[in-house]
Amino acid sequence: MADHETTWGDHPRTTVRLRPGERVTLCRCFQSKNFPFCDGSHREVAGRGPVTVVVLQEEPSESRGVI
Ligand code: FES
Predict the structure, then answer these.
(1) Measured from the CB, is residue 25 less than 6 Å from ligand 1?
(2) Is 28 helix (H, G, I), strand (E, B) or coil?
(3) Nearest-10 Cα torsion for 47, 48, 49, 50
(4) In a domain? residue 6
(5) Would 30 be classed as within a structural domain?
(6) 41 is in which domain, residue-wise?
(7) Residue 23 domain-assigned?
(8) Confidence label for 39 from pLDDT (cuts 50, 70 and 90)
(9) Which residues, in sequence order, are bridge partners of residue 17?
(10) CATH value at residue 40
(11) What positions belong to coiled-coil segments (predicted)?
């Protein structure tokens, strides 16, 4: 499962760390009780829905022809 942290500078910033192959659905409406992850609360408010992020598996360098 992805881990995350929020820092509070001039503007709050949340960083989500993902590993290759992970998939998460992130909240863009700021109503989720499980922020930064979507919990479906966007259905109750007008505005933005979630965005899904998928981390693609990177190929080993040998298979990309790197010498
Ligand atoms: S809860 Fe915010 S986008 Fe789904």
Answers:
(1) no
(2) coil
(3) -150
(4) no
(5) yes
(6) 19-58
(7) yes
(8) very high
(9) 3
(10) 3.40.5
(11) none
Instruction: Pick the closest to residue 21 from 63, 52, 58, 50 (CA basis).
Output: 58
Q: CA 12 to CA 9: how far, in whole Å?
A: 6
Can you give the pTM of this predicted structure?
0.76
- Please compute the mean of the pLDDT values over residues 33-52 and round it to a whole number: 94
- What's the total number of domains in the chain? 1
DSSP for 3-63, please give it: EEEEEESSSEEEEEE--TT-EEEE-SSS--TTTTB--SGGGGSSS---EEEEPPPPPPGGG
pLDDT band at 61 (very low <50, low <70, confident <90, very high): low
Candidate of 14, 24, 29, 52 to mutate for ligand 1, largest count of ligand atoms within 8 Å of Cβ:
29
Is 11 inside any structural domain?
Answer: no
